[in-house]
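Posting for a labmate who doesn't have an account.
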Amino acid sequence: MKWIATIWGIIGVTAFIGTAILRLYEKAALAFTGDYELTTMHWVIMIAFSIFMLIAEGYRGFQKKFSPRTAARTQQLFLHPTLKRTLLAPFFCMGYFDATKKTRIIAFSLTAGIICLILLMRLVSMPMRGVLDVGVVLGLSYGLLSYFCFLVKVFTKVDHGHSPEMPE
């Protein structure tokens, strides 16, 4: 059961982030189809926002917080599977349950915030929406790659140094 739970957890987390990347990539690509004329200002905004998202979302959000914790929780799933954790493995890995209060609050707050941002982005017209989506795609891609790197680390090193933030 531990392999099934672990693989399901990894696939679920990857699908959650990967689906967002693919959907946003499609929107971002629309800005470059030739139907829209991108100005110098669009390019400047795209480059600046992409750098911001790589640092804020990719590095600070994923590499420093989400990815190490999620990878450590994936290892916990492997070491201590239960029926509930197996069935809801992606949600366990992301910290929605069997986690510290702080981790659960962060997981639910980020989900609510992401939903609000998605709804707000629907109000932004093309090509600006596509220009901004480029930065989000880069940040999420960086984040997914960092998750894979941390998975390798937690499953190959005995003392990987990352907390799964489990309740006591």
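Reply:
Got it, the structure tokens are right above this. The chain has a mean pLDDT of 95.
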